[in-house]
Write a structure and sequence with these properties.
The chain has twelve helices and eight strands. By secondary structure, the chain is of the alpha/beta class. The protein has two domains: 4-187, 3-Layer(aba) Sandwich (Rossmann fold); 195-293, no CATH class. Helix 1 crosses helix 8 (164-187). The protein is globular and about 60 Å long. The relative contact order is 0.12. Residues 235-279 and 289-299 have low confidence and may be disordered.
Length: 299
């Protein structure tokens, strides 16, 4: 059986000594017990990339125009070839680390020219205190912007990792995440976009339409996205109806799955064939309430 290739991007300055790395190693072990996997770890600190100066050449000219493409290019190729991605970061002052934020800046062009549709991802965050929601949201939204389907999130309380009961819970959650991650990669089905993805697509579509003869516009035109409701590569079976609900006479069908948290509880929320007319603001509020339910928080 061919092993699944998983690329892990770690934004901790402590590298192998970090709880971010150690918690992902637990996930690796659980995945290995289900299916042969080959993990490669990229520690952002070891890339030694300078601060992105926001020149935007990657956006306006092309990724090869980045002054640091010699370093970033090979990483982008590995990301493209991987069957799955894991983005992990510790939490510094209740936010993403500077290392990870700087790394993400180098992939601004992926937000304009997303290419990872169908690629599955998991995001993780570790902290002795709080801030998990902010960092997990940032990592998930980043992976989504690149085109990834984020299948699960793990928030770890590093200060609790030496306690047997907590470690037992982490192992249980890691088993669940591993099972889902492997399953989604093997199925290879395209995920359904969330409402915010549809809104972001429309905004990017309008922006790209105004960028005449640009590398971004050519990219979108080649894929017939300029007049599409959403990227054709993505199924919108679950939430495309929410986008249509903004317009008259449409029926909403939605299935929102809540991921398991560290207490081991899970919820499935189904809204089937509910005909209603809601404004974009009302729909957004509803989805934010659902999102609050599914946050993965430390015990």
């Amino acid at each position: 059986m061919k092993p699944l290739n998983i690329l892990v991007l770690i934004g901790s300055p402590r590298n192998e000594e970090s709880w971010t790395y150690k918690s992902i190693r637990i996930l690796e072990e659980k995945m290995q017990a289900i299916q042969p996997v080959s993990f490669e770890y990229i520690f952002v600190q070891k890339l030694n990339i300078p601060f992105c100066d926001g020149c935007l050449k990657c956006v306006s000219v092309g990724e090869h125009a980045c002054p640091d493409y010699e370093t970033i290019g090979p990483v982008a190729e590995k990301m493209d070839k991987a069957d799955g991605l894991i983005l992990g970061s510790p939490i510094h002052t209740f936010n993403i680390t500077g290392l990870m934020k700087n790394f993400v800046e180098y992939f601004m062009y992926k937000r304009n020219r997303p290419s990872f549709f169908g690629k599955k991802a998991v995001v993780t965050a570790t902290a002795s205190g709080g801030g998990h929601t902010v960092v997990l949201d940032f990592l998930e939204q980043t992976a989504n912007a690149w085109g990834c389907d984020v299948v699960s999130r793990m928030g770890i309380s590093s200060s609790q990792m030496t306690k047997p009961l907590y470690l037992e819970r982490v192992n249980k959650v890691a088993e669940d995440v591993a099972r889902k991650f492997v399953s989604e990669i093997i199925k290879g089905e395209l995920g359904s976009p969330k409402f915010r993805h549809l809104m972001n697509f429309r905004a990017m579509q309008n922006m790209t339409r105004n960028q005449k003869d640009s590398v971004n516009q050519r990219y979108w035109e080649e894929r017939n996205w300029m007049d599409a409701e959403f990227t054709p590569l993505c199924r919108s079976a679950c939430l495309h109806a929410l986008w249509r609900a903004i317009f008259p006479g449409k029926c909403v069908t939605a299935c929102v799955r809540a991921t398991k948290n560290l207490t081991g509880k899970s919820m499935d929320l189904d809204i089937n064939s509910v005909a209603f007319m809601l404004s974009g603001v009302q729909i957004w509020k509803m989805l934010r309430e659902i999102n609050d339910i599914k946050q993965i928080m430390p015990v």
